[in-house]
Write a structure and sequence with these properties.
Helix content: over 70%
Strand order of the largest sheet: 1-4
Number of strands: 4
C-alpha cells in the first residue's frame, strides 16, 4: 500500500478543511465559534457513526448501499416500540443495536453465500428493509416520541454532547478492531488481495459476515442517535445517503476497490463534507447549488489523487500487515 502518500492525503484533506473554515469565517465570523462547530458535529453524528460501518465494508472491497434504508427502518421500528411499549432509552439503544446486527448479518450472509456483487445484494435489501417496515408498521412516520429519548439527546459529559461522546467511543472501538485484531487484519488482507489472504488462512466467510454485521450495528446506533436528536422517525428518511457516505470516505482516502482505509481518514472525509455544506449555508449560497459544488470539489480532489497515484506508483511498495 502507498502508505506514505495515503497518510499525506488524509492530512491534506484536514488542512483544506481548516483553510475552508478560516475562509468562511472571514466572511461570517460565527462559523468559527467553537459552540457552533460542536453543534454542527453533534447534529451530524449520524454521518460519522454510519461512516465507521461503511468504512469496514469498503476496506473489505464491498459496497453497502442499504445503510440509509437500515437507519430509517430501524429508527421507525424503535420509535414504534418507544410509543407502544414505553421502553426506556437504554432498551431502545439495545433494540436498535440488535436490529442493526440482524440486518447487517443478513447482508453479510447473502454477499458471502451467493457470491454476488455486494452492490446488487445491498440494492435489493435496501428496498426489502423499507418495504417490510412499511408493510408491518403501516405508517410512514412516527412523531412526538416520549420526552426521555430527546432528554437523553441533550445530555453532556464535561460539556461535550452525548452524540459526540458516541462518535469518540465508537471511533476508538473501530480503530482498535482495524489496528489490533485478527479480524481487522483479515479485512485489510481480503480487500487487498483476496486469494493471497485466503492462502494465509483468513476465513473470508466469517470476515465478510462480521464486516456487514458491524456496518449494520453502526446503522442501528445511527438510528438511535437520530431519535435522540430529532425525536421523530420517517421511513423515507436517509434515502440517498449511501452515496454521500461513499463520497465522504473516498475523500478521506478510503480505496474504492478495497484494501485501504482508516478511521482518521473517515473522520476527515465526513468533517470536510459537513463543513463544506454548512459553510456554503453560512455565506448564503443556495442549497440547490450545494450538491453541484460538492460534486465539483469531489471530482477535483479525486482526479488529483488518481494522477498523483499514477506518477508515484513505482515510488512506494505495496504492503499489507
Amino acid at each position: 500500500m502507498k502508505k506514505k502518500h495515503r497518510l499525506g492525503r488524509e492530512y491534506y484533506l484536514a488542512i483544506i478543511s481548516v483553510v475552508f473554515v478560516l475562509l468562511i469565517s472571514s466572511i461570517n465570523p460565527n462559523f468559527i465559534k467553537i459552540s457552533e462547530l460542536i453543534d454542527l458535529f453533534k447534529s451530524n453524528a449520524v454521518y460519522f457513526i454510519g461512516a465507521f460501518g461503511v468504512l469496514l465494508v469498503m476496506i473489505l472491497g464491498g459496497i453497502d448501499l442499504s445503510i440509509g434504508s437500515m437507519i430509517a427502518s430501524i429508527a421507525i421500528i424503535v420509535a414504534q416500540c418507544l410509543k407502544m411499549f414505553n421502553i426506556n432509552v437504554w432498551q431502545a439503544f439495545i433494540l436498535a443495536c440488535i436490529l442493526g446486527v440482524i440486518f447487517g448479518w443478513i447482508n453479510g450472509i447473502l454477499v458471502s453465500k451467493l457470491n454476488v456483487s455486494s452492490v446488487i445484494i445491498t440494492i435489493a435489501t435496501m428496498s426489502i428493509y423499507r418495504g417490510m417496515v412499511k408493510y408491518f408498521i403501516q405508517t410512514r412516520y412516527i412523531l412526538q416520541l416520549p420526552e426521555g429519548i430527546t432528554r437523553f439527546g441533550r445530555l453532556t459529559v464535561a460539556g461535550i454532547p452525548i452524540q459526540i461522546i458516541f462518535i469518540i467511543v465508537i471511533g476508538c472501538i473501530t480503530y482498535f478492531i482495524l489496528k489490533y485484531t485478527t479480524m481487522g487484519r483479515g479485512i485489510y488482507a481480503i480487500g487487498g488481495n483476496e486469494k493471497q489472504a485466503i492462502r494465509r488462512g483468513y476465513d473470508k466467510h466469517k470476515i465478510t459476515i462480521f464486516t456487514y454485521a458491524y456496518c449494520g450495528l453502526m446503522a442501528g446506533i445511527s438510528a438511535f442517535i437520530h431519535l435522540t436528536l430529532i425525536g421523530e422517525a420517517y421511513i423515507e428518511g436517509y434515502a440517498g445517503y449511501e452515496i454521500t457516505f461513499i463520497i465522504m470516505l473516498v475523500l478521506g482516502g478510503v480505496s474504492i476497490v478495497g484494501g485501504y482505509g482508516s478511521v482518521k481518514g473517515a473522520i476527515f472525509g465526513v468533517a470536510f463534507i459537513i463543513l463544506l455544506k454548512n459553510g456554503f449555508t453560512y455565506i448564503h449560497i443556495s442549497v440547490f447549488l450545494h450538491k453541484i459544488l460538492i460534486a465539483i470539489v469531489f471530482t477535483i480532489l479525486v482526479s488529483y489523487n488518481v494522477i498523483y497515484n499514477k506518477k508515484n506508483e513505482k515510488k512506494y511498495s505495496v504492503e499489507y500487515d
